[in-house]
Amino acid sequence: MFSYRHAFHAGSHADILKHLTLVHLVEYLQEKPVALTIVDTHAGAGIYSLQDGFATVSKEAEGGIFRLMKFKEAGNPIPESIQKYLDYIEAENTAEELNTYPGSPFILARLLRPQDRLKLFELHPKEIDILRHNIDELECAKQIDVYAVDSFSRLKGLLPPPSRRGLVLIDPSYEDKQDYRYLEEAIEEALQRFATGCYAIWYPILSRRESAALPDRMKKICALHIRSWLHAELRVENAPRERRLQASGMFILNPPWTLEKHLAEALPVITKALGIDGGAQFLLKSFEA
Ligand code: SAM
């Protein structure tokens, strides 16, 4: 426990899939003026350097955000669905250099309107201090609460949000195999309190049984409580002998009707930009009862 530091993975292909989806979810939910409550159950440090520290050791951003920016700079057309996400990355950097990658707390904080609230959970003893420091620097810090407690057991306490308009990002590190079970329990409890909320779950695609089973487990939970889901995956390579993460997925409960079109536009371009070998591919499926 606590060996995971998101700085190693900041700006990776997995972050791109997750954050691209997240930006669209928030923008859709903000189409109505009513206050939106956003919960980020696994926040990390908030924002990361790409030029020193952990990111330079793992070099995961090389296959992610740096590759996507090079693709753009080479003159390849970037659809609006991707550019809207890139706007949040570019806003934290100068035009000349990509030094910094905003994690979900910073992307979400930049999206807040005055009436919105952001709730961040982080359990890592070092990450929580960095997160608090980073959030304190923001103008909208008063709209943000940071909790140093286990989000799986505490999420339900924030639901339903006062305005009954809410988005929950669940992005565990899956460092502990039990996270898959905790995630299911947290989702079940959350849906009992707030079945109309939008829930966005990120997961790694690994040879682990629990990871392969996650989408089907979620579909079963959906069948009991809600009417719609969307499932997207991005694979950048298929090199079974390599240990690095080559694919990840997002499972969205109660997705906005616009999300499928948005990802259908973005994912072919992302796959082309980030694909390393012929195994690069995406999946996009949705269901509405
Ligand atoms: N959501 C972040 C982003 O997109 O920038 C990345 C988060 S990272 C994948 C997962 C984080 O969850 C780690 O920083 C880890 O310390 C934290 N964490 C692990 N278990 C937790 C728990 N039960 N409650 C809250 N935070 C937890």
UniProtKB/TrEMBL annotation:
Active-site residues from the entry: 171 (proton acceptor)
InterPro entries reported in the protein's UniProt record: RlmJ (IPR007473), SAM-dependent_MTases_sf (IPR029063)
Name assigned to this protein: Ribosomal RNA large subunit methyltransferase J
Catalytic function, reaction form: adenosine(2030) in 23S rRNA + S-adenosyl-L-methionine = N(6)-methyladenosine(2030) in 23S rRNA + S-adenosyl-L-homocysteine + H(+)
Coiled coil feature spans: none
Signal sequence coordinates: none
Site residues, Interaction with substrate rRNA: 4
SUPFAM superfamilies in the record: S-adenosyl-L-methionine-dependent methyltransferases (SSF53335)
Native species: Polynucleobacter wuianus
Function noted in UniProt: Specifically methylates the adenine in position 2030 of 23S rRNA.
The family this protein is said to belong to: Belongs to the RlmJ family.
Assembly and binders: Monomer.
Matches recorded under Pfam families: RsmJ
Any one GO BP annotation for this protein: rRNA base methylation
Positions with a binding annotation for S-adenosyl-L-methionine: 19, 42, 104, 122, 150-151, 171
Gene3D superfamilies per record: Vaccinia Virus protein VP39
Domain of life assignment: Bacteria
GO molecular function: 23S rRNA (adenine(2030)-N(6))-methyltransferase activity; RNA binding
Keyword terms of this UniProt record: Methyltransferase, RNA-binding, rRNA processing, S-adenosyl-L-methionine, Transferase
GO cellular component, one term: cytosol
